[in-house]
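Annex B.
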Amino acid sequence: MSLDLTEILESLELGRISVSKAKKLLSLYAVEKIEDFAKIDTSRKLRRGIPEVVFAEKKEFLDLKKIILKATSKTDSVLVSRINKNHYKKILAFSRKNKLKIHTGKNTTTILFSNKLSSTGGKVGILTAGTSDIGVAEEARLVCESMGCQCICSYDIGIAGIHRLFPVIKKVIREDVDVIIVVAGMEGALASVVSSLVDIPVIGVPSSVGYGYGEKGVAALASMLQSCTLGLSVVNIDNGIGAGAFAANVANRSVRKKSRFNNSKTS
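PurE domain-containing protein: predicted structure tokens.
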């Protein structure tokens, strides 16, 4: 029996299949095998709200094409992150040839495959200290948008010219964002500064921008982890994907809570 998720649930409700049969079908539905080298988690977005993410950096080009075709045929959103620069243009051409709807970002080789980006009402602010941090921030943006969140982005507002920050802080507060992502390299101080100015959860992303003693993001990571401002959480160096997923989860849960609260007041 080959059923999609909706058909399985409808069949269970109508008594056409047993609970054990439904459980078996759902477990089969959750994983899609690709020959002997990959297993796609096709129900991740239904289960967790986060789409399947394919880490492409070390994958062979032919294998990557097979993964993309299979994943896009089974789920409405797939992120392919860190595509090898030698493969990136080929993947773009391959996507156009196969009429796959793609969303790209500045200074990143991560691609979001999605026919339609829905909206949950969640809002995420994404800030960077410098232009060198934009690629990581754009990865976070693509993840957030794949999860239905609107992103309010502002780049190159680091503490070397701290006066650039204050109009942006006013904007994210006015936009009533649910969470803020801050990407910063060098000493990573921007995350602490932003966290000290708002009553909004802040996710710090240390970027691998820097040289010398604290090179490759080490100083930024240490600085964020030892921040004296409260309300700041920190992910790994260059982990825009993880920051985006966490931020969108926070934003979407906040929207659901607000909706239930408003409904309870009117009932």
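The domain at 35-114 is CATH 3.30.110 (Translation Initiation Factor IF3). The radius of gyration is 21 Å. Further annotation is deferred to the next reporting cycle.
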